[in-house]
Amino acid sequence: MHTFIHTRYSNHPSDVKKYDTEQLREHFVIESLFSADEIHGVYSLNDRLIVGGIFPQSKSLELETVDQLKSTSFLERREIGIINVGASCTIDVNGESFTLNHKEALYIGKGAEKVVFHPSESGDALLYFNSAPAHTSFPTTKVDKSNAEIVELGSAENSNARTIYKLIVNSVVSTCQLQMGMTELKTGSVWNTMPAHTHDRRMEAYFYFDLQAGQTVCHFMGEPQETRHMWLTNHQAIICPPWSIHSGAGTSNYTFIWGMAGENLDYGDMDIVSPDQLR
Fold first, then answer.
1. Is 118 assigned to a binding site?
2. Which candidate, 177, 203, 207, 202, places its Cα nearest to that of 192?
């Protein structure tokens, strides 16, 4: 057994108002996702999204089912999106091999019985994944920056110039409910997802990377008029409930992966909160 998934329960916003820093981190922050030759993750009861990391350092790792799923295989009733945040490696899906380079994505649909992650030559393959319940099966699809939907947002004047790569979204790949993408902050820009927003019909998870040693991101969450903040470092993730904003500002530029699950696949479905309305 090399797979370790822990359960996190949903939280009412009235309860979260009373949490101190330690409690906020315990319920929402995923401190460590990568452990050599293991698969680690969190099963969130917010839309039952699984957030995890795969680190095949010296041996191949098969995607095993876990107790939370009560299934014969991990993808029996699920879909999964994987984005490589380390060195190039190979993933086998039912005997078909896919090479996944740095910042490339792979979508695997419901019903894939055998998925195997192989080490890179350097032993530095790091695979971040999100998995959501699925009602039907769609083809395994690789997505890189050349066939992603790319959006330029923000400005240098507002310290939030950024490039959004929509990798696993319904305009690029057919999915049941999972949506994933990657946002790169340009040099000199630090704010992500500003103006902030909420979306009641889906939850979200953020994974921060490309942060140099000694740098950090202050992530903001909570109801727009009752916000909280937490400091995250490289390769840490955070769960964002549907009622919560999700925004951040770093001490340098960085990259983050956003993943969503819920009943709505419309990327533009969000309730914008202008900066001067936040409290």
1. no
2. 207
Cα 190 from chain centre: 19
Cis ω before 195 (30° cut-off from 0) = yes
Name the residue among 36, 34, 45, 37 with its Cα closest to residue 6: 45
Assess contact for 92 and 115: CB atoms under 8 A: yes
* 41-61 residue pLDDT tens: 999 999 999 999 999 999 999
- Residue 55, judged by CB atoms within 10 A of its CB (0-12, 13-18, 19+), counts as buried
Backbone angles phi, psi at 197, to 5 degrees: -155, 170
Residue 237 DSSP code: E
Which two three-digit tokens encode residue 272?
A: 């914008």
Residue 102, annotated as binding a ligand? no
Tokens 């909280």 -> residue: 228
Q: Answer yes or no: pTM beyond 0.90.
A: yes
Cα distances (angstroms) measured from residue 179 to each of 12, 70, 85, 98: 24, 24, 17, 20
8 Å CB contact between 83 and 104: yes
Tell me the pLDDT tens digit for each residue of 49-107: 999 999 999 999 999 999 999 999 999 999 999 999 999 999 999 999 999 999 999 99
| Residue 199 annotated in ligand binding | yes
**pLDDT tens readout for residues 123-151:** 999 999 999 999 999 999 999 999 999 99
Beta sheet of 89-93, edge-to-edge order: 61-62, 115-117, 89-93, 96-100
The per-residue pLDDT for 271 is 87
Domains and CATH numbers, the chain: 3-277 (2.60.120.10)
Q: Is 2 annotated as a binding residue?
A: no
